[in-house]
Specification:
11 helices; 385 residues; elongated; alpha+beta; 8 strands; eight-stranded antiparallel β-sheet
Length: 385
Amino acid sequence: MNARDGHRTALQRWSAIHKWTSLTCTLFLLLICLTGLPLIFSEEIEEGFDDGLPAATVPAGTPALSIDRIVATARERLPGWTTDFVVFDEDKPYATVFMRPSDTAGIDSRRRIRYDLHTGRELKQMLPIAQSRGVMDVALSLHTDLFAGLAGELFLGVVGLCFVVATVSGVLLYAPYMRKLAFGTVRDTRSPRLKWLDLHNLLGIVTLVWALVVGATGFINELSKPLFGLWQLTDVRTMLAPYAGKPPPKFEDLASAQAALDTAQAAVPTMRITSVVFPGNPFGSPYHFLLWTKGDTALTSRLFSPVLVDARTGALTTVVRMPWYLRALEVSRPLHFGDYGGLPLKLIWAALDLITIVVLGSGVYLWVSRRRQRAGRAERFGRPS
C-alpha cells in the first residue's frame, strides 16, 4: 500500500467515525441545544416571572437579621418540619429556607420560604418541586438527565463524548476537503446538497472551539453525582471518622446557626458565604453545619470551598480543600452555560447554540440525501437495459 492509498484509507476511517458518532448523538444533541437556549437565560427568565414580594428599601449599611431568627420564623410557619439549609441570594437581600416534612422525606417534598434578610418578612413560599414543576424545571431535567436520574446523566455524558469525537473527526475531514477551495466558500449555485455541505463544514469549523468546550464540559457536568459520591466516600469519610459511633445532635441541641456563620466567615474572611447546610442533610454532615463559600473575583466566584463547624459546640472543625476533580467540575459549569460574563456573553452563547442546531440539522439532511442518491443510483444501474 502506497502513501496515497494509506491516506485514503485513513480518511475513510475518519469519515465512518464522524458519520456514526454524529448519527448516534444528533437527536439527543438537538434536544440538549433546544433546552439549553432557555437555560442560558434562566436567571433573567426566573426573575421576570417571579411573583414574590420585593425586599424592603432600607438605609445603606443596615445589618442583616440573625439566621437563627429567620430559621425560627420558618419553623413556626411549618411546625415539625426538618430544616435542610438556608441559601443567600447573590444580588438581593434574600434568605431562602429549604425544609422537608421529615428527615426521611425526599427532596421532591421540600418547600422553600424566602425571607427579607433585613426585616425578616416572608416574601414568598414555594410549593414542593413535585407540585410546582415549571417550564424551566422541565427544560433542566431534559437537558441534564432526561427524567432518568443518574442513568440519564451517564447516558447524556456518553452523548457529550460522542459529540467531542464527532467534532474532532470533522476537523480531520475538513482540511483535505477544503484543500482546493478558499476558506468560507459556499457553492450556492450548485446543487442544494453541495451548498448545505459547504455550509455544514463552514459553520462547524467556525464554532469548533466553542463546540469542543461545551461538549467536554457537558461530559464533565454529567459526572457530578459520581464525583461527589467519590468525595463523600474518601475525603468526607476521613473527616467524619472521629465522630463514628456518636449520635447526631437533635435540632434543639444545635449551636447557633448565626454563630456558625460568623465562625466560618472569620476563618475565610475573603470569601462570601452562599449557604448554610444543617446537620442531617443528605449532602452534608450529620455532626456539622456545612457552610459553602466562594470568592468575589471572576474566577474565584465559581470556586466553592466548604467550611465545617461543629454543630454542638459551634467551634471550627476545618476549612475543606476540594479535590482536583471537583475543582474541574466547578470550572466546567460556567464554561458550559456561559453565565460568567453577563448578558453579552449569554447572547454569544445563544447564537453559537443556534448555529450548532443548524450544523446538526444540516448533517442529518446530508446523510439522508446521500442515502437517497445512492438508492437512486443503484435503482438505475439495477434496471435491465
